[in-house]
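Dear Dr. L.,

I hope this message finds you well. Following up on our conversation about the binding site, I have prepared a predicted three-dimensional model of the protein together with pyridoxal-5'-phosphate. For your records, I am including the exact sequence and ligand specification that went into the calculation, followed by the structure tokens. Please feel free to forward this to your student if that is useful.
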Amino acid sequence: MKHYKIALTIAGSDPSGGAGIQADLKTFSACGCYGATVIVAVVDENTIGVTDVHPIPVPFVSGQIKSVLDDIGADAIKIGMLHSSELILAVKDTLSRYSIKNIVLDPVMVATSGDKLLQDEAIETLKSELIPFVRVITPNIPEAEILLGKKIRSQEELPKVIKDLSFGNRVSVLLKAGHLTGDKLTDVFYNAETNEIIELSSQRIHTKNTHGTGCTFSSAVAAFLARGLSLTGAVKHAKDYINKAITAGAGYEIGKGHGPVHH
Ligand code: PLP
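The resulting structure of the complex is given below.
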């Protein structure tokens, strides 16, 4: 019998197809997994920005998670935009009934366009309830600054602050450096299970097509974990995938704003 590894995303829907659930599902397929999706919010957005967010009723989100996990299960889960405290608590409560180790949390807060995707009052709930519950978090610089409560000014600071994001060395952290300036871009990964810090360097790819890069990167980590790679191996493969996805999509003209990457 052929075994197909299953990756589940719990996130918001982007009708323009570049971010959120749609990016996650395309990434799962491209990275060799069967993808399943639980939608927590329908976002009215495109490559230019977010117009509105329509959250799905909380019992309906819990119901979708149960429907997927009771039937097909999941080898890894990626959690993206959760919008509110109620949704964060419901997702944690439902997932805690299953023993799934590979949970990747992208602490989505603000879109590239500057629009808020997580309510301000939900940030504390994310920190106290969900982050300590997952295997790895994938903040970008603005998200890390909010979690840390302080500014990050340079690349040199990343290896110093990364452990402060690990909640007492319990949670691994992939800190994405794309928001810093410079032609060399070095993401930093702290593996809390081996207590190692690894630098993942690449040349910056100059393109406006960056919509959904965060979603794609975290989904790729989940897909490679589902396929049985080590944590560090999954992060390295995901970095390679996101670089190739941005490079391949750099020349596309899709939409009037920040276009998507290529999956
Ligand atoms: N829309 C949805 C539904 C998302 O989950 C995310 C995730 O980060 C975004 C938009 C943000 O996309 P970007 O910041 O790449 O524009």
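In brief: The longest helix spans residues 231-249.

With kind regards,
A. P.
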